[in-house]
């Protein structure tokens, strides 16, 4: 399995897909940070209004609100809470996994690695590494931008930052395992990418939430991946803040196991 993992990591980090997806996340990170920074400046605010942007709050209220915003909170609102991070990582997963099926390379892999777990675990660990790469790179950019702006957004404690990064990484891994299972079922890039946009964006969860709330059963979705990502604690605050980590780990195991069973049942 380690040989297969090394091959997958080499393919992943030498391919263009990883860096194209990273570019999207970098763009949203830089754009949001700079927009929040310039919007509190009265002259820049007036410039934006003159060019068609609607800003209802006053400059003083905007500055007061932004001064109370932490760096982790801004990062969370930019790429994480709305589901952009799992959508991007899910899209990468679909393209990476389904390439094996489209090219027929999966037959060569499974002829050498008869244990289907080798394939599932190799793909999972490779994609989990890519997720950590995305989160770390974009967060470091946020730190760099904030340092360049002389700490415009207040810093969280180092331990809280690391805990937050670990938490969203675990939940994002759960989404990745979900797309892996979808790809084992459909073996189609289009279906995998479509699944990433529909399932990882929280669209299904939000629709179900509206329906279940009619019957007073909406709380069950508090244990879904999307809800734990959207409401991920911004720092460690006791055992209750470990829920996203536990939920992410459980779904990783469930979806990976389902993917292995499906791969073993279907002909390649």
UniProtKB/TrEMBL annotation:
It holds the Pfam family ABC2_membrane_4. The keyword Transmembrane helix applies. Keywords: Membrane, Transmembrane, Transmembrane helix. This is Uncharacterized protein. The chain crosses the membrane at residues 20-39, 80-99, 120-141, 161-183, 190-215, 235-256. The keyword Lipid metabolism does not apply. It comes from the Bacteria. Signal peptide: none annotated.
């Amino acid at each position: 399995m380690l040989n297969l993992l090394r091959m997958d990591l080499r393919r992943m980090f030498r391919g263009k897909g990883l860096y194209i997806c990273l570019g999207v996340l970098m763009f949203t990170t830089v754009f949001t940070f700079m927009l929040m920074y310039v919007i509190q400046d009265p002259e820049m605010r007036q410039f934006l209004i003159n060019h068609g942007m609607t800003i209802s709050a006053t400059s003083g209220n905007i500055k007061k609100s932004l001064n109370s915003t932490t760096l982790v909170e801004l990062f969370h609102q930019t790429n994480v809470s709305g589901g952009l991070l799992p959508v991007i990582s899910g899209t990468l997963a679909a393209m990476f996994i389904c390439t094996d099926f489209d090219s027929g390379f999966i037959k060569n892999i499974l002829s050498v690695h008869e244990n289907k777990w080798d394939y599932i675990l190799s793909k999972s660990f490779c994609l989990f590494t890519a997720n950590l790469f995305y989160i770390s790179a974009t967060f470091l950019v946020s730190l760099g931008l904030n340092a360049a702006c002389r700490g415009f957004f207040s810093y969280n404690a180092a331990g809280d930052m690391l805990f937050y990064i670990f938490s969203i990484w675990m939940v994002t891994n759960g989404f990745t395992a979900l797309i892996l299972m979808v790809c084992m079922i459909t073996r189609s890039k289009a279906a995998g990418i479509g699944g990433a946009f529909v399932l990882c964006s929280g669209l299904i969860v939000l629709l179900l939430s509206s329906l279940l709330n009619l019957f007073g059963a909406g709380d069950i979705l508090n244990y879904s991946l999307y809800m734990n990502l959207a409401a991920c604690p911004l720092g460690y605050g006791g055992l209750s803040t470990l829920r996203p980590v536990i939920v992410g780990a459980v779904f990783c195991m469930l979806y990976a196991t389902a993917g292995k069973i499906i791969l073993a049942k279907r002909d390649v």
